[in-house]
Amino acid sequence: MEGDAFSAFAITALRLAGHLIAAGDRLAKPAGQTSARWQVLAAARRGDMSVAQIARALGLARQGVQRLADVLAGEGLIAYADNPEHQRAKLVRLTDEGAERLGVIEVAQAGWADGLGAAFTSAELDAARAVMARVMAMLESDGASGG
């Protein structure tokens, strides 16, 4: 029975992910970006991360993040810097133009999140986040990913 409940949870989570990506695309569009590019820009702002490290942090494939990073670099929104820890794995840095675009997105996102967040109590959101974090930790552990 718990498997049925978990399956329903997983289906709902996947549907939510789709809605969040679509909303992210709408929020990022005025800055000429997509939700995927937004994620890479936000990670680049943290600084001193390689493409592989960004991919791991976002739970994405390195090749996909590399492709996005190359496009963002071509547009002058990020720049690659030498990595003292690894000769070939460059660090990804946000440029001033990238920071400006990211700022536009984050202002829009803050208003959007405030509007949606007002429909829930902090306790409800904390409980939902805690369950999601536990599921992610289980899936990230060895052998639990179904593969």
Automatic annotation (TrEMBL):
Xref: PROSITE patterns: HTH_MARR_2
Residue intervals passing through the bilayer: none
Pfam families registered for this protein in UniProt: MarR_2
SUPFAM superfamilies: Winged helix' DNA-binding domain
Protein name: MarR family transcriptional regulator
Domain HTH marR-type, first and last residues per copy: 2-137
GO terms assigned for molecular function: DNA-binding transcription factor activity
GO biological process, one term: response to stress
